[in-house]
């Protein structure tokens, strides 16, 4: 993931947006692995359940953690 990825609006590098709600990172491949992490979005079951009640900053942190998990599993370059 590029360093200048804009989590605020799920926009790529160079695309700016207001600090609004973050679109759920769910991609519709909902299957929890043995570590209780979704194989589609790489959020934990707890993160998925809490998503709608998280603050903007917490959502940003969850997305960052999910990208780290995806990279660690070899799913993202």
Largest sheet: none
Ends apart, CA distance between termini: 7 Å
**SS content category:** mainly alpha
Query: What is the general shape?
Result: globular
Helix proportion range = 25-40%
Using the CA coordinates, give the radius of gyration: 12 Å
Oligomer: single chain
> Average pLDDT across residues?
82
Count of runs of 4 or more consecutive helical residues: 2
Order of helices and strands: HH
In percent, how much strand structure appears in the residues?
A: under 5%
Low-confidence runs:
1-9, 11-17
Q: How many β-strands, per DSSP? A: 0
Q: Which SSEs are present, and which pair or pack?
A:
Blueprint: H1 45-50, H2 56-72
Tell me what the structure shows.
The chain is mainly alpha-helical. The chain has a domain of 51 residues. Helices cover 30% and strands 0% of the residues. It has 2 helices and no strands. The longest helix is centred in the last third of the chain and has 17 residues. The protein is globular.
Question: Brief description of this entry?
Answer:
By secondary structure, the protein is mainly α.
């Amino acid at each position: 993931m590029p360093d200048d990825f804009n989590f605020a609006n799920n926009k790529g590098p160079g695309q700016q947006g207001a600090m609004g709600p973050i679109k759920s990172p769910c991609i519709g491949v909902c299957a929890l692995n043995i570590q209780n992490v979704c194989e589609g979005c790489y959020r934990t079951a707890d993160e998925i359940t809490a998503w709608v009640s998280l603050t903007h900053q917490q959502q940003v942190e969850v997305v960052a953690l999910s990208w780290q998990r995806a990279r660690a599993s070899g799913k993202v370059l």
